[in-house]
Design a protein that fits this description.
The protein is built from 7 helices and 4 strands; from the N terminus they run ααααβαββαβα. It is of the alpha+beta class. Strands 2-3-1-4 form a 4-stranded antiparallel sheet.
Length: 159
């Protein structure tokens, strides 16, 4: 899908305010509501908008720890990667996971109540024999910059 300046403006507004009304969105991007609605439907149908979410303050919910885990698998076959990825999706505490090129195979972001709960999770993963050979734990001591709006304009049309 070829994006123009209005499409990019719509994406940028929605990235910061997913609850904005269609009328307010139209006003912010300088269009009337009907064309904004049509563009929004096209952006959703093209898969450019994957969903609308609320940002939850974990700190206000209660005690928790965020841990990044660099993981290395014991076997490097396509089947092993698929099996690990399928298994990781079943652990709610693993809130994000990325396959990596380079030294480690995966980087997981884990959120648990405390370090003890994190260690129980890792023990369960090891006991489940999902292919985890080695892991390296990095405990987040404070957030510095959270999820941010990607530089949409710079990404549009990038090779």
């Amino acid at each position: 899908m070829k994006l123009d300046d209005r499409d990019i403006a719509i994406l940028k507004v929605l990235a910061t305010d997913g609850r904005i009304t269609k009328a307010a969105l139209a006003e912010r991007v300088g269009l009337s509501p009907t064309p904004v609605w049509d563009r929004l439907k096209k952006l959703e149908q093209a898969g450019l908008i994957e969903g609308y979410r609320a940002e939850i303050s974990l700190r206000k919910l209660g005690p928790h720890v965020t841990v990044f885990v660099a993981a290395e698998l014991s076997d490097h076959t396509a089947a092993s990667f698929r099996a690990f990825e399928d298994a990781v999706r079943r652990y709610d505490e693993v809130v994000a996971c990325w396959a990596l090129g380079g030294g480690f195979d995966y980087l997981m972001q884990v959120v648990t109540r405390d370090i003890d709960a994190y260690q129980r999770l890792i023990d369960a993963m090891l006991d489940a024999r999902i292919g985890l050979a080695r892991y390296f734990t990095y405990v987040v001591t404070k957030p510095v910059k959270g999820p941010a709006i990607p530089p949409i304009e710079m990404l549009v049309g990038a090779p």
